[in-house]
Design goal:
The protein is of the alpha/beta class. It has eleven helices and twelve strands. Bound molecules: nicotinamide-adenine-dinucleotide. Nicotinamide-adenine-dinucleotide binds next to loops.
Length: 333
């Protein structure tokens, strides 16, 4: 019997991306018992909550899930299913590796950064209300405990993986209380890791530094909203959202999901790039201890890209299924 993993097929392009991953994992002889759980627009259409309670319970019981992107209606309607899952399962550490890939031409050579985004607080606490007609408030929630656990996750990762430097990213010059608390907490945690260099940058400067001096950066730790925005910037530096993987970790549970959203415009067109969800899946295989299969799949992906088989978003003409089949051939060959 294989490892149990919950699977959310997602909205928009989610189901076609999941089909690609299933095919590649099968070709790599990955033994997983998928447990399908529901969330997203389908649930709303059926009159259920966007993330039903039994989905939360099942993921909590199994401990690991692979999730394709889900759509959140903009400016109206239900809460984000993605944020709901992260908050209800207390998946506080969103970890997003940003690494150059072979055959993907960008101005940013030798990218190798890991983003640690705090995943449960900040403006994502979803505490919003109208004060009076025409005046809206959103609360930015930062706690010492929340800042401490993401800072520790970043430093511990740096220590365990032989990384040299952690940079905390904030806007404590303006939000002196909330971002000040985040920064002071990172500074305090840094003292427990004397072998790791610690720096901090204001978020706007960090964005500029990333595209001018990316080789100076190693691990970035950020509150939720800056982490969200800088992740997409970094995904662009890799070559686009179709390439950038991610994982959300809590104490007893992890959900693996790509940085990108459901790209609904492309749904059903057999066009989108499965690389981001594939690299997300190999992060999951590492978490499950399947290191040989992880290496084999990443090798097959690198070889496919290096040979020039690419989807539209990175300058190729291959469809999702052609790209998927090329990776499967590399695995079998
Ligand atoms: P998006 O990431 O879905 O798409 C933005 C653009 O990025 C697309 O138009 C496309 O050009 C490109 N892109 C994204 N994924 C790609 C892929 N795999 N291959 C090639 N190109 C790809 O962002 P959006 O359009 O702002 O959001 C669409 C929906 O997704 C919204 O409802 C949003 O709330 C949701 N969303 C979900 C998640 C998640 O599930 N974790 C994350 C971000 C956004």
């Amino acid at each position: 019997m294989g490892c149990k993993v919950c699977l959310i097929r997602g909205d928009g392009t989610g189901p076609e991306l999941v089909a690609s991953i299933e095919k590649i994992l099968k070709a790599a002889n990955v033994d997983i018992d998928w447990i399908e759980v529901e969330a997203g627009l389908k649930c709303v259409e059926a009159g259920k909550p966007i993330v039903p309670d039994d989905t939360i319970e099942k993921i909590r019981e199994v401990g690991v899930a692979l999730k394709a992107p889900m759509t959140t209606p903009i400016g109206k309607g239900s809460v984000s299913p993605n944020v709901t899952l992260r908050k209800r399962l207390d998946l506080y550490a969103c970890v997003r590796p940003v690494k150059s890939l072979p055959g993907v031409v960008t101005p940013f050579k030798n990218l190798d950064i890991v983003i640690f985004r705090e995943n449960t607080e900040d403006l994502y606490a979803q505490i919003e209300y109208m004060v009076s007609p025409g005046v809206a408030h959103t609360i930015k929630l930062i706690t010492e405990a929340g800042s401490e656990r993401i800072a520790r996750a970043a430093f511990q990762f740096a220590k365990d993986n032989g990384r040299k430097r952690v940079t905390a990213v904030h806007k404590a010059n303006i939000m002196k209380i909330a971002d000040g608390l985040f920064l002071r907490t990172c500074e305090r945690v840094a003292k427990d890791y004397p072998d790791i260099e610690f720096y901090d940058n204001i978020v706007d400067n960090q964005c500029m530094q990333l595209i001018t001096k990316w080789e100076d950066y190693d691990i970035l730790v950020l509150p939720n909203l800056y982490g969200d925005i800088v992740s997409d910037l970094a995904a662009g530096m890799m070559g686009g959202l179709g390439l950038a993987p991610g994982a959300n970790y809590g104490e007893n549970c992890a959900i693996f999901e790509a940085v990108h959203g459901s790209a609904p415009r492309y749904a059903g067109l057999n066009k989108v790039n499965p690389t981001a969800l594939l690299l997300t899946s190999t992060l999951m295989l590492g978490h499950l201890g399947m290191h040989d299969q992880k290496k084999a799949i990443e090798g097959a992906l690198d070889a496919t890209l290096a040979e020039g088989t690419k989807t539209y978003d990175i300058g190729g003409t291959a469809s999702t299924t052609e790209f998927t089949d090329a990776i499967c051939s590399q695995l079998k060959g």
